Amino acid sequence: MSRPHIIILGGSGNTGRMIAELLLQQADVDLTLAGRRLAKVQAVADELRQKHENRQISAIQVDAGDLAGLEKAFARADFVVVSSSTIEHTRFVAEAALKAGIGYFDHQPTSRDKIATLKSLKTRIIEAGCCFITEGGVIPGLPAMLVRYLAPRFDRLESAQVAFVMQDDKAPSPETLIELKTQWKQYQPLVFKQGTWQLAEQMVEFDFTESFGTKPCMACYLDELESLPKEIASLREVGFYIGALASNWFMRWVARPITSLIPTRSLGFRRLSARLLSWGIRFNPPPYLMMIMVEGRGWCNGESVFMRLRLSHPSSYFVTAASSVACLLQYLSQDIPPGLWYQADAVDDERMLSDLQRLGVKVEIETVASH
Ligand SMILES: NC(=O)c1ccc[n+]([C@@H]2O[C@H](COP(=O)([O-])OP(=O)(O)OC[C@H]3O[C@@H](n4cnc5c(N)ncnc54)[C@H](OP(=O)(O)O)[C@@H]3O)[C@@H](O)[C@H]2O)c1
Q1: Of all helices (H) and strands (E), which one includes residue 252?
Q2: Does the pLDDT value for residue 41 go beyond 80?
Q3: pLDDT tens readout for residues 227-260
Q4: Nearest ligand 1 atom to alpha carbon 16
Q5: Which of 228, 263, 275, 346 could tie 174 with a disulfide, CB 3.0–4.6 Å?
Q6: Are 334 and 268 in contact (CB under 8 A)?
Q7: Is any atom of ligand 1 closer than 6 Å to the C-beta of 16?
Q8: What average pLDDT does this structure show over 193-201?
Q9: CB of 38 closer than 6 A to ligand 1?
Q10: CA 340 – ligand 1 centroid, Å
């Protein structure tokens, strides 16, 4: 049987190139790296070819906004990993994948438009026998999976709160920042309480160890959490929270004051703002760390139990790549059937966590029981 051939759209990006490297290390696959600028994907492909001589690794120029180009690029692939900030082109990418009869995975920000587009194609995805996995990566991607991991460790899990914080000095491209900002505007501060999803009344503090200390965090609804209260009948409270992102002197005194004066109506001005903010990220002070944790409260053997599981790594891009690859390894071993899935629903949580640890993500678990 020939090796699976995976095409990575955005193969020259911060995350895409790490996914490529990890995939070559962890799976017997061939790769095509795709992006609009051929020289960039070509340079990454050349570097990878030197380290992985026995694999087919190529580069191709393709724009996610060009349906015919996507169809041509996907014709010789078995699977597409969408690692590009191209949510606006989800329909083209998904249609081209369906036409080629290949699988699909994205780790883009959570997006109502993206999810709606993919759901509108669900019947065709199933009829074609394809496996489409969306909402991959860390945020979205891990929160619901972490709650599922904790649940069987309790006789009765009553509350599960997931919190995330990160600080990096490696900036996403201005386009990726614009996409993030656009999606961020759609986020709703909803948590599940008293039998319903409701607006969070206040910020909640989480302990991010000595690295970040205790930080107030803001609630943020993710679609992947929706099914948890039905699935885990004892769950009375569930939520996902984000800690304030880092700031630095450049952002505070230069970038933000200037960008607040730049009109946001035109794309050109939005790009200018994003370029300034993207540039400002390099002034972020250490520690460079991404931490995601779940805190569970409930009962075990008649005792009240608090359990906390923390995942951390110096690079948020690495954890996004590692989570994506850990999910793809389950797809490649045929453990994820055809259909449309969220990463958090598709994966086996025990295997996912053990793979993340094996790939270098620090995993710590602590339990406190009281009578
Ligand atoms: N779920 C999570 O936990 C998580 C975490 C981090 C990032 N993300 C998301 O992951 C995506 C990638 O982030 P990143 O920081 O790695 O991005 P990045 O470094 O900015 O790279 C973006 C990549 O996409 C390519 N690209 C952009 N527009 C394209 C188009 N129209 N057609 C084809 N390729 C295109 C770029 O190459 P060219 O410019 O040459 O085309 C580049 O290779 C973003 O959507 C980001 O928000 C998610």
Answers
A1: none
A2: yes
A3: 999 999 999 999 999 997 666 666 666 666 666 6
A4: 16
A5: 275
A6: no
A7: yes
A8: 95
A9: no
A10: 22
